[in-house]
UniProtKB/TrEMBL annotation:
NCBIfam families: ComEC_N-term (TIGR00360)
Domain of life: Bacteria
Stretches assigned to the ComEC/Rec2-related protein domain: 237-512
Main localization category: membrane
Transmembrane segments: 19-37, 44-62, 68-86, 257-279, 299-320, 341-358, 364-383, 395-420, 432-453, 460-479, 491-511
Organism: Cognatishimia coralii
Name of the protein described by the UniProt record: ComEC/Rec2 family competence protein
Amino acid sequence: MLRIALFLERTLRGQSGHLFHWCPVFLALGIGLYFSIRFEPDQALVFGLLALAIPLLIWAALDRSGFMAIPIALTLVIAGFTLATWRAHEAAAPRLDLPYNGLVAGRVIDIDRSSSDALRVTLDQVAMWDLGARAPPERVRVSLHGKAEGFRPLPLQRIKMKARLAPPAGPVEPGGFDFQRHAWFQSLGALGYTRALPREITPPPDGLSTSSVRFALSEGIRKHLSGDVGAVAAAITTGDRSHLRQSTTEHLRTTNLAHLLAISGLHMGLLVGVVFAGLRSVMALWPYVALHVQVKKYAAGGALLAAAAYLALSGASIATERAFVMAAVALVAVMLDRRAISMRSVAIAALIVLALRPESLLSPGFHMSFAATTALVWVFGVLRSPSGWPVPGWLKPILALCLTSFVAGAATAPFAGAHFHGYAAYGLPANLLAVPIMGAVVMPAAVVAFCLAPLGLEGVALAVMGWGLQWILWVAAFFADLDGARRAVVAPPGVVLPLITLGALFVMLWVGRLRSFGLVPLALGGWLWVAVERPDVLIDESSAVVGVMTEAGRTVNKSRGQGFAVRVWLENDGDVVDQQGAFERREDGHKDAAFAYLDGHAIWVKPGKVKSDQRVACRSSDILIASEELRHSLPCRVITPKTMAKTGALAIYVRGDSLKFVSVAETRGTRLWSPPGQAQ
């Protein structure tokens, strides 16, 4: 035991100077622990953990051995758990508990497009009628259909409309993406649509505001650049995606170029780089300034101000906030004569982002941006040498670009596959052709256009920007139209991404030969992903749509309706067929026959009312899924809307003679964002 303790102490001492890189990892472990438990921690538990942190900090302060890292790590885990608990309670807001069909009024705070390409508005300061004593949701999101399609909302405009709203839906299958949790942290209490033309109550307030400036910039850009080019230009400069067609977005997503739309690390980095280089070059032209002023620090300060302005004008989304924090950390490091891009800078940025928004740990943007950044910093750190790369000078930029695209693509591939159920087969060549144009043409032209706008001369710069975007869109369309451009990937079990992440971090952050042990969780995560078993039967929370796994793939009982749930099921299966194709897989179309047979278990699906004399020859080992309540008893197991209201979506695994039922309520537990009345 003593030898083990000495070995551990010596090993931890060997990490001196590198342990700070692990701080965001242990903070994230605490946050992840909060989101993974199946109950909501009470005050006694939280205060007990905080009390435990006090002796841990005293231990760390008094201990001068390598073991002091242990209490610090435990304290960070407690801090992450506490931060996530506080943030979840702080985000609490009223939400709709039952469907609503009536008048809705509110102030427009966001305009975007839904997956069906419909214009969509998010309202705050919501007023709703016929709610009784219940408070209206803090925010609602309404898609505009029918007559409402001709309405063009304005930021901060107060509008009124008749809409159909419903509470945020839960996961479409156990262990799936929890939109109710996502909506909870956005204070989004209801979603729906309207077909009636909205009516303006009050116009946007006079005077300048961030929203009005964003809207004016977006309109000005699209006056010079029409069509998809103008829509993309507005999206990457102001965050306005309300004119961006889904077909364009799909082309970019299929070729792994969708990151060019999100105002995140790439855009913020390019903007900061252009402003920093421009200011430094201009100041260096004046001999007195170049000789007596620390030009680099002033240029970094100017770039930081430009990044802050970009953050405000782009709408300050979570991805943009994260990118700003990372850019700010790098620029402040320059002003303090520290290395701008290092693993320490990445760790500081991750700590700040997690402290401000603990829930961002669950977002694809957090995973992919920090995965790409960490991998790039590590790879280029390994390749750094006093003599530089042993290649000709003209080849270095080309090699660096290829290596950057490859490393970033490889680092984000597991997260892209897990979150978006696929990977872009031609992502590398598409990025090699598009990203340099984004950095060398589009973003510099955007900065110049912004500087020339007060003089009314922005048109020339926007034209150059448009040429660059035309090239990027052509690249996306070309590769997206190739056969096999997007390969489907089955959804992994929930434990896979944490295993892969921890294994990769151990390889990159640990110093010494023990880093090879990080390959073990990497391999284990990969094996669990390959060996994943998908449910034999899936039932959505309304019991209206059922999906059964067959030899040809999953088949569903409806060719239309509940399209979101079916699409997610098929994507999680790694299946590229659409709902109509899945519906046509059903082999037996007889009205009175069971929907499917699995190892002797008949799966009966009955839409509408099941009459007492209706022929349902089910046995005790069978399952009947009905979209309405039954008025008589049957020998088989019956699943109805009342059942689903308690359990949420259901997954069924066939195990020979037995059936294993797994529900959303069982896997999620009782959390703040769980709907009331769901039973575990």
